[in-house]
Amino acid sequence: MIKIHTALFAILMLISAIKMDNIQEQEGTLSQKLEQAPVKHQLSYIDQDEKHTVIPAFSEEKHQPKVKMLSTSTEEKASKPKPKKKETAKPASSRNQSHYSNEEMDLLSRLVHAEAKGESYAGKKAVASVVLNRVEHRSFPDSVRGVIYQRNAFQPVSNGSINDKADQDSVKAVKQVVKEDDRTTKAIYFYNPKTATDNWIRSRKIVERIGRHVFAV
């Protein structure tokens, strides 16, 4: 019986010694981990009395954004506005009679004859001038045929009178306007106020009146 008690006591003492060794070993491991902890955890600490966090000054410098300094010439370039692109208008035609085909001259003469029948010689020149002004204007076709046959541009094209042979005065007026560049008007529109029904054409700025026609831009 005494031997059993002695054996149990020895076992208990052995267990206690093992537990003590484990505790000491764990404490040693914990202290090693604390010593090897990253430096960033030691850079800030908490003041228990004032209850605020103190952060080293070099961390503030690290997060400051870098400001790129501009030279004087760079600032001047940045302050100068970019020039607006100029609109390019259709260049004015410098063509004379030698640059117009016989077909173009004949077509223009027939239009003048149909549009200015019964008008004065100046009135015929004015109608021819309108056609050539349109050829040179960026809003219209750039050929005599293109201008005359533009949709709804001239009534003689619609009613067929454009096909009638031109009278001598109309032919002469066209030659003078083309050859001598003798434009009677700068207008790009003309109409007869007694027969015109389009309110839009009546809204255009009038530049002159010749015979029964009003010339406008």
Give structural notes.
- With 217 residues, this protein is mostly helical.
- The protein has a domain at 97-185: Cell wall hydrolase SleB, domain 1 (Arc Repressor Mutant, subunit A).
- It has nine helices and five strands.
- It has helices at residues 2-35, 57-63, 72-79, 102-115, 121-135, 144-148, 155-159, 168-179, 199-202, and strands at 45-47, 52-54, 189-191, 206-210, 213-216.
- The strands form two sheets. The protein has a three-stranded antiparallel sheet with strand order 3-5-4, covered by helices on one side.
- The termini are far apart.
- 21% of the residues are buried.
Notable features of this structure?
217 residues, mainly alpha, Arc Repressor Mutant, subunit A, 3-stranded antiparallel sheet, two-stranded antiparallel sheet, 5 strands, rod-shaped
How is the secondary structure organized here?
Layout lengths: L1 H34 L9 E3 L4 E3 L2 H7 L8 H8 L22 H14 L5 H15 L8 H5 L6 H5 L8 H12 L9 E3 L7 H4 L3 E5 L2 E4 L1
Organism: Bacillus altitudinis
Protein name: Cell wall hydrolase
GO molecular function: hydrolase activity
Radius of gyration: 51 Å
Q: Could you please say which CATH topology of the domain at 97-185 applies here?
A: Arc Repressor Mutant, subunit A
Helix-strand sequence: HEEHHHHHHHEHEE
- What is the CATH architecture annotation of the domain at 97-185? Orthogonal Bundle
Q: Tell me about the biggest sheet?
A: 3 strands, antiparallel
Shape, per Cα inertia axes: rod-shaped
List the strand order in the largest sheet.
3-5-4
Low-confidence stretches: 39-63, 67-79, 84-98
Note the total helix count: 9
